[in-house]
Automatic annotation (TrEMBL):
Domain DUF397: from-to ranges: 10-62
Organism taxonomic ancestry: Bacteria, Bacillati, Actinomycetota, Actinomycetes, Pseudonocardiales
Record's protein name: DUF397 domain-containing protein
Ranges for region Disordered: 1-23
Source organism (scientific name): Gandjariella thermophila
């Protein structure tokens, strides 16, 4: 993937921020066909950049419960 310019993107904080995790969460931003993901506590820190199709696949896996913890 080529370099993605995230200097002017609008970051969006997860809607689950603040629900039992002290507001610590992730933020995402779209730039063309890429998605940036960063730690909301450290907005100047590193950013994980994914192709949009990989982000959509990740979200679909979340919806299917692929990352849920097993019940005791």
């Amino acid at each position: 993937m080529s370099t993605v310019d995230l200097s002017r993107v609008r970051w969006r904080k997860s809607s689950r921020s603040g629900h039992g995790n002290n507001g610590d969460c992730v933020e995402v931003a779209w730039s063309g066909d890429a998605v940036g993901v960063r730690d909301s506590k450290n907005p100047a820190g590193p950013v994980l950049v994914l192709p949009a199709h990989a982000w959509h696949s990740f979200l679909a896996a979340l919806d299917r419960g692929c990352f849920d913890s097993p019940s005791p």
